[in-house]
Structure formats: C-alpha cells, structure tokens
C-alpha cells in the first residue's frame, strides 16, 4: 500500500483545504482501508482543531493611540499638508528655534574669531616696523648664525592674536614663566622685510649664540654671556618675523638697540 | 453625529491605491480593517503583545511610504501586509534575542488567557491551548511562519507563499514538516503529563474521615 501518495492529501483534508474532489475521494477511500493513515488523519484533525481554537482565543486589543499616531504621521507625509497635531507643531517650532539659536551663536563666535584674526591696517608688521631700530637696517651677517638653534626646553608656543603687540596679552602670559614681566618689545628681523605681512603664527623660544645677535639687529654688550634666550615671532608661513630678548644667560638681560 | 468614512465598502486593493494617492480616509480604513490580521500574525509568532504593537506600527508606516509599490496582480493585500510585517519582525528578532521562543516554565501571557475559564473543562481546554501555543513558539522560524500563516491565520498556500516570497511547494513542505514537529512536541508533552500524573493515581486512598485522627 503506497501511503506516501496520500500523505499531502491527508493533511490537506484534515485542514479542510483539499479543494480537489477527485483527490478527496481517493484519500477517503485509502483511509477506509489503511488503519495507520486513519489514525494519522485523526491526529491531524485534532491538531487542526486545536490550532483553530488557539486562533479563535487570541484577543486583539484596540489601540486608538496607535491609530491617531499613524494618522498624524500620514498627514505629515503628504506634500503641502499642514501638520494636524498640535504636539507635532510645538515640536517643530522647538526644533526650529533651537536651530536658529545655534546658528546665531555659531555666527557670532565666527565673527569674533574673524575679527580677532584679521590684522588691522598697519597691523603686526607696521607696528613691529615702528619699533625697529635704525641700526638694524643694515645687519652684519654672522657666520654660522643664520638659523637660530631651538632650545629643547622651554619652548613656548602660543597663537598670536591680531597684532604683534597682542601676541602675549597680559592675561595670557602665564604661558611664560617668571621672566615674562621682563620681556622686551619685538624687533623685526632684517630678513623679514620681503616676507608677506604677519597674519598668524606662534612664538618660539630659542637659545642663540651671543655672537649672532648683530645678525638679528641686536647689540652685543660687554657683559653678554656666550648664549642668550630669545623669542622668535614665527609667521603663518613658518618664517620668523621678529625677535625679542628674554634674558641673558649668565648676564644681564639686554633689550634691543 | 459621527462622520461615516466613504471608504468602508471599498475593496482592499483600492484602499491601498488611494493610500498611495494620499487619501487619509483610505489609509485609516485600511488600518482598521487589516490591523487585526497583522497583529494576530505577529502575536502568534512572538507571544509578545508589545512587539506585536510595534511591528504593526512599523508595517503600516511602511505601507504609508510604499503603498505605490503594491501590485494587485502579485497577490492580495493581507498577504502583502503580512509579508511586510514578517520583514519587520525578522529584523526585530535579529536584534533582540529576548524574543526567542519562551521557556516551558513561563506563565501564560495575555495572548491567550484573556478569557478566564470558569469551569474545569474550560480550565483543561485553556491549559491545552497554552501547551499548543508554546509548541508553536518553539518551532524554528521558517516552520513557525507557515504554521501561523496557514493554520492560525488560515491563509491559502498561495497567499502564504506571497507573504513569504517563496514557492507554493516550499510552503506546503514546510507546513507538513512544521505540523509533524508540533505533533511530536505535543505527544511528548502528553506523555510527560501522564508520567507526572501516575504517582497521584497510584497513591493510596485517604481513610474515611480524611486527615482527622
């Protein structure tokens, strides 16, 4: 007896889903002669009835809130449709107000920064130029002193502000230790004459041979030691624009000539 | 007097078409008409009413966006909706391992115990349904989907195949395999209950007068 032929039909018949009358008749004939298949059919019927009872026992609760949310969402997705929910209107206004505030503050901050970074007419270079010593106009080159030696410590780097005179504002001088109150004014370097105007840069502390000071437009005094500390004002292109003495190592601090 | 929507007698596929055109009434009618089917499908798959609500919401949000992609020539609306819900449910199951089939020692949830049995027969029947629900939940996902769609939602093979984006033959074979697994689980459960009940049956009867000495 080939029971496998009737297996699919047996299950479909038990589920009430066998719509082929010819197949149904064949399955029923087989069930009448095959006891194992008849028992299988009874179990399948029982399972079907149980599953349908389970389906019928399932309760679907109402959810008006979910429907309202969906309808609000639907209305908001339609082009040109106004938002119908006051709640969503309030949220939108809050979002736009927050965005406007952020935009305002970012713009204000950018404006302040731009003003601080923009050199005024006759700014850094002009002011440095104004303090330039006449003796520095024709510097005496010193062999071996073309490039300053950057001291490993301390090196102070600070973003200069609009003008050279504001490179180290009074309130920010804590970046330099106790000698900051003994700093001289910056003196433009002779080689910086052909460079573009100072826009931004940093201050680098270096240790220079005393013999090289005339090359930077500075005088050598009799009490000068072998090396001297100085601050170089380095521009946005990495080129030094001006110099100031900090103190003489082992001697008296000397300002520019 | 409440306003009666003019879309109550509109066929399902026409509701979907109008939804795609921006008709809010059509969308509302479609939601009210089809939400129970989608909710039951997800609930039978997870036994979690919260997940069922979430997935129904996600499914109708998708309908809101993709109603224009519905093709009546490729199937009816209910299988299409169940297919959308099935996709959302699979994503949810993939990211939330808590939705794996529940352990057998868990208490019945609100899914099937909303109607409290008032008689002993009702209690037995409720207990049987709970066993059956747990057995369905313990099926592997691919068998559970077809059992829920075909035997609990009573979709045709073709509609179930449309929902699952597979062939009718695949649905049929998975259903037969799923039902065989269900029958095996229930048979084992009944055998276990008989073993538990055996000591009670074999216990000596109480003497007359009960526990009074």
The total of beta strands of chain B comes to: 0
Query: How many beta strands in the DSSP annotation of chain A?
Result: 5
CATH level 1 name of the largest domain in chain B: Mainly Alpha
Strand content of chain A: 5-15%
Poorly predicted tracts of residues of chain A = 122-181, 248-257
Helix count, DSSP H or I runs of 4 or more residues of chain A: 6
Overall 3D form of chain A? elongated
The pair of chains with the biggest contact is: A-B, 33 and 47 residues
SSE order of chain A, as H and E? Answer: HHHHHHEEEEE
Distance between the termini of chain B: 73 Å
Helix content of chain B: 55-70%
Largest sheet of chain B: none
- Quaternary assembly: heterodimer
| CATH homology-level superfamily of the largest domain in chain B | RNA polymerase sigma factor, region 2, helix turn helix motif
Helix/strand order of chain B: HHHHHHHH
Describe this structure as you would to a colleague.
The complex is a heterodimer of chains A (about 260) and B (about 210). With about 260 residues, chain A is an alpha+beta fold. Chain A is about 40% helix and about 10% strand. Chain A contains six helices and five strands. In chain A, α1 crosses α2, α1 (about 5-15) runs parallel beside α3 and α2 crosses α3 (about 35-55). Chain A starts with a helix and ends in a 9-residue tail after the last strand. The relative contact order of chain A is 0.10. Chain B has about 210 residues and is mostly helical. Chain B folds into two domains: about 1-100, Rna Polymerase Sigma Factor, Chain: A, CATH 1.10.1740.10; about 120-195, Winged helix-like DNA-binding domain superfamily/Winged helix DNA-binding domain (Arc Repressor Mutant, subunit A, Orthogonal Bundle). Chain B has eight helices and no strands. Chain B has helices at about 10-20, 25-45, 50-65, 75-95, 120-135, 140-150, 155-165, 170-200. In chain B, α2 (about 25-45) runs antiparallel to α3, α3 packs across α4 (about 75-95) and α5 packs across α8. Chain B is elongated and about 65 Å long. Residues about 105-115 and about 200-213 of chain B have low confidence and may be disordered. Classes of the chains: A alpha+beta (about 260), B mainly alpha (about 210). Chains A and B meet through α1, α3 and α4 of A and α2, α3, α5, α6 and α8 of B.
